Amino acid sequence: MQRSSLVFNLLQRQLVHQRQRISKNQMINKVIRSQLPCDVFINHRGNDTKRTIASLLYDHLTRLRITSFLDNKNMKPGDKLFDKIDSAIDECKIGVAVFSPRYCDSYFCLHELALFVESKKKLIPIFCDVKPSELRVSKSNNIQLESKQIERFNFALEEAKHTVGLDFDTNKGNWSDVVTKATDVVIESLIEIEEAQIIKNPKKLIIP
């Protein structure tokens, strides 16, 4: 009995140690991922879509080893909000803009969208429970904006509205379908960007 008890305690300690090591490795990997340049930036209004399509898309892309940026996944205490977001947009290859009914009430959403349009990077719109024609910024929105900001944001919205995107109705659509479709478009876009870079710089094909 004493020997069995010792063996059990030993195995239990080993299991605890293994779990701690796995947990530590997961934490290290999470920190490393948060520091890597992202391939895809997911622009969205948190209160509307963070717990649904934005997180589902992020998780799906991550499982496919496509590095993505989602604020609550990549930012940590101490990060400067605008610096982190602006840097992520500058480094990423493409953006996914998830438009929702109250999207235009968020300064951050509009700021990120404007940065994308101004950078001329590819943007994939997903119109979730909202029609493109309904997206507009004015002084009636729940944010205080100067006239120049309203003009800048509306220009970005117009560019997005005239870009072919995905439409999704949460009352009728299937979450899995829209995430899969969005992922397919992201992958195709990343391949196109990679091919264009290779054509521009054929030396990338040379294997040392």
Describe this structure in words.
With 208 residues, the protein is of the alpha/beta class. The protein has one domain: 3-Layer(aba) Sandwich (Rossmann fold), CATH 3.40.50. The chain has helices at residues 2-35, 46-63, 71-74, 81-91, 107-119, 147-161, 175-200, and strands at 40-44, 68-69, 94-99, 122-128, 166-168. Strands 2-1-3-4-5 form a 5-stranded parallel beta sheet, with helices on both faces. The longest helix has 34 residues, at 2-35. The radius of gyration is 22 Å and the shape is globular. This is TIR domain-containing protein. It holds the Pfam family TIR.
Brief digest:
Residues 36-161 form the TIR domain. This protein is α/β, with parallel strands linked by helices and 208 residues long.
Tags for this model:
208 residues, alpha/beta, Rossmann fold, 5-stranded parallel beta sheet, 7 helices, 5 strands, globular
CATH class: Alpha Beta
**Could you tell me the mean pLDDT?**
83
User: CATH superfamily membership, which one?
Assistant: Toll/interleukin-1 receptor homology (TIR) domain
Number of helices, counting only DSSP H or I runs of 4 residues or more: 7
Helix content: 55-70%
Tell me, what's the shape? Answer: globular
SS content category: alpha/beta
Largest sheet features = 5 strands, parallel
Which CATH architecture would you pick?
3-Layer(aba) Sandwich
> How is the CATH topology named?
Rossmann fold
Number of structural domains: 1
Which value, in Å, is the CA radius of gyration? 22 Å
Q: Strand portion, in percent? A: 5-15%
Protein name: TIR domain-containing protein
Domain TIR: 36-161
